[in-house]
Structures
1.
Amino acid sequence: MGLTAVLTPAEEGGYVALNPETGTTTQGKTVEEAVANLREATALYLHQNPDTPTCHPTGVPWAPAQRTPRMLSYRHAFHAGNDVDVFKHVALCALISALERKDKPFLYVETHAGAGFYTRRSRRAQETSEAALGIRLLWPPMGVDPLQPALATYLSEVQRCNGTGGLKRYPGSPWFAQALLRAADRAVLAELHPVDHGKLVRLLRGDKRMTVVQQDGYALLRALLPPIERRALVFIDPSYETRDELGRLHAALVDGRQRFANGVYAIWYPVGTKHAADSIVAHVTRAARTGVRPSKTLDIRWERAQAHVRGDATEGLRGAGLVIINPPFGLDETLPKELEAVVARLEPGARRGRVRAAWTVPESA
């Protein structure tokens, strides 16, 4: 008897594979790739949980069905440089820059870091071709309004990642963090996937500001908060593919705020996936209201005027959002304007979606 794999088509293309005995979940562009990733994820899960009982005759250990994974096998490489990546990374540049308006150093924490950069000519990138609807529409960088500093910084770093010779690579969020953090700031980046973790270690090796750990990002917050700097930006970018993701996100935010209520917590989310965007925002909002004093919370969301349809006739993501607990002062006014400029390039036609900013926990709460 072999490994059980339950396969379902993913909304963003490809397949999601679930092992019901352990709860591990992965994705792949083909059935074969999804199953191969599932075997890798389940092996890592079992390695990290040595108390798993019994084995099948095949030698494959099985965990109780009620257990859930502590590992995300979502690979950022499938979606590197797509439209929601552009939205997310411009927002991240704006967030880091906003925290740097004060001289005091801060801690940057990333719970789902990925590999740091991605080669656009890789098999995964070529299979999805999602960058054609993202960074390709902003490339080559030209004509950036000086009143859009986050967009200018973002494009500058994409260009630095590629050097000369065209758009060959796309930087992930750790790349932008390393570029923007100051000498006195520091970062701790968590990535569980062994391949992506190894790539990230090699990318950041030698930079004493940057620490990379192969650890569950949510659990990592308990060890890091409160930070010695007394200032922190926690960037959470999960795949939303595991059964208990929203519950774990909510619990991590509640615990994080109990340890460090003044931290800035930024949670990215997709619009148009199996988890409704409103449900994700509601979980974050409830966490922000938990405790003696609620934390002001800002939701910034972009939804396309019309969802794009892929070559296989499936519908892609409709947009993305970022819900921010304790956003830096003035971000509710400056960031939506910057993101509107991004959307104008991502949706160049007459019909265009809009960027909406709303306080889910008002400043006066």
2.
Amino acid sequence: MSQVSCGDRHSAFAATDGSLFTFGDNECGQLGIQSKFEDAPKHVSELREDIKEVSCGYQHTLVLTKHGYIYGMGSNKRCELGLGSSQSRHNFFQPVRLTQLESHRVTKIVAGGFSAALTDKNQLIVWGTGEFGVFATPKKVCMQDVCFIDMSISPQENACSAAIDSKGGLYMWGPNQHGQLG
């Protein structure tokens, strides 16, 4: 294994040969396969590209390939796959390519209660439904003189989120009923 991620009720890992394996609950298609549940790792044969990174969210999974393409699978009911308003808000049981980000060089993907990506220019891009509202397609977070270097999103439906900038600044947002924002 080269990388692993755990979502709300599913997990995934990228193998050293670039293939993707998923397991757990697949009610919304987040495993990228047709079965409803897998209690052992299952190869996602529909993805025929080498995987660089996988990130499991609430009911979806994002995959970043070594060629820089992003694929999503699972629930799009909260726009977490970033497919836009022309795509109906339903479940995708096979990986779907997210073409809206192909003009950016994405270096990191983050799936949680919504979705995000970091670019090689330290830009933060978010999509889905969160405390920020609803972005059916990816939108860049614009903050003057801020270069983001890392990001995390909790895998719950009502996710809290954190981002770190290049100067060590911490940005947090989302619900705070349990003090999770500090």
3.
Amino acid sequence: MRFIKAHCSGNDFIFIQGKSVKNTAEFVRKLSHRRFGVGADGVVFYEPNRAKVLARYFNCDGSEADFCGDALLTLGMLVQNGVNTVSTRKGEFKFEKTHNLVRLEMPEPASLKQMEVEGITGYFLECGVPHFVTFADDLEKLDVQNLGQKIRYNELFGETGTNVDFVKVIKKDTLKLRVYERGVEGETLGCGTGSVASAFVAHKLRLTSEKVKVLTPGGETTVELGSKIFLCGTPIIVFEGELKEPIESSTERR
């Protein structure tokens, strides 16, 4: 089975052309393991179909997500032959690429509401997947793992939980972001939907402009707000490979 390993801002993925395999959740968990597998935050199964590419995204814990901004942005770099639309469980979205830059249409944020969780004031919204956005002055000293986990599993978000975005406004056109990702169950180096959610909330609060650069530990993306919303980034293909041996099982991802 051939695969491609790639990332966008350090948010890394394994791409496999074809339909999902049998026992997909178990396969994804093993393949995503950073010691016993290839290692990744998630796995994308994709099938080009004329001008569209059909995509299914699985978190490294084996759960399937409706959408993943960085994964689909990276997929836009991989597909060829006039493909300009990605079809997901959230619908169809256009993308365009120029050299090493990909610009992806994103789901319209919805259900925005202010709330307090674990004593922290923030904003919940759906942005392809659920996000809780909160602002912090000192991101470097923040315990993203523990605090993010408490918020992610808070009963206010039900069984599905939420991703958690810790944001600092640097200036009118720049945000800094750290994210605890649901399905990874830890901090990731980047997050496309988190970048959009954070930029959207910051703009609603009149803290930033419509076009915002989002800095994450793994790099940067740009969010463009308007009648439609776009995520822009420069995905990197790391290597290609082939799975030849059964992937050993393990209970620990890393």
